[in-house]
Write the structure tokens for this entry.
Amino acid sequence: MTVVRSLFSVAVLVGGLAACGDEAEPAAPAWEEPASYTYTLTSSEGERALIGTFRITVRGGEVTKAIGLDDSARRVVRQLPDQVPTLGALLEELEQARGDGADTAEARYAADGHPTRIEIDGEKNAIDDEVRYDISDYEPAVG
């Protein structure tokens, strides 16, 4: 009976804390960006150059290949190839937004800790300043 009461007390305490104030975003799992990997990035929202879906190859911590998978992305790759980011650069953008007090600066993470979605909105009532990155098909390089 004591165990049941203790578990109930813990559940009430945790529930009560969750109800207080804003809910905190869960901490990112520990993940260290590997030097080499590939991933697919779908960048959307807002008025900015980096819009579209890309297949990105990173080697030695640098983007070495980017393939635009739609018209917008092909235009970025052709005209602004230095705008195509590594996952580390996306996470730095997220941290910068948090440091700048963005209204929204959230991320979702895979079980291994790499980001799967990043959403940023600098000012709630500003138009076209939103950023959304969906990350899929992440594959660390073997070897």
Q: What stands out?
A: Residues 1-24 have pLDDT under 50 and may be disordered. Strands lie at 37-44, 52-59, 62-68, 104-109, 115-121, 130-140. DSSP finds three helices and six strands in the chain.
